[in-house]
Design goal:
124 residues, mainly alpha
Length: 124
């Protein structure tokens, strides 16, 4: 998995605080899902993680939401089979975000599989 502290580049080269907080909240949700599967998410801790993710998501601008969508999609693409456990949790945080991630996931996985062939096409 991509580390939660890995930067997401902006055009200005500086990531906003709201986006970093949202990434941290969603990274905690993804990590907990990967580590503890479904039993953990019946607990108070799971509710706290979802609430934190909702709160940070609501503070994002439209541009930062788009960056978070890309970051989440990359996170789930790197988790592989574990993404199936995370997607329902995203839906419990925000259904529109979960639907957007699901729509982008196949495309991003394909991008990650074939970066060399895309570079060859763009160089031509």
């Amino acid at each position: 998995m991509i580390p939660a502290h890995a930067p997401v580049a902006e055009a200005s080269g500086q990531t906003g605080l709201a986006l970093r907080l949202a990434q941290r909240a969603f990274a905690a949700l993804i990590d907990a899902a990967a580590a503890n599967a479904t039993a953990m998410f019946a607990t108070l801790r799971a509710a706290q993680l979802r609430q934190s993710a909702r709160r940070t998501l609501s503070a994002l601008s439209a541009d930062d939401r788009a960056r978070l969508l890309r970051w989440l999609t990359l996170q789930l693409a790197s988790v592989g089979a574990g993404a199936g456990r995370v997607r329902p949790l995203l839906a419990r945080v925000d259904t529109a975000l979960a639907a957007s991630v699901a729509a982008e996931l196949a495309r991003v996985r394909e991008e990650l599989r074939a970066p060399a062939s895309r570079a060859d096409v763009s160089a031509a």
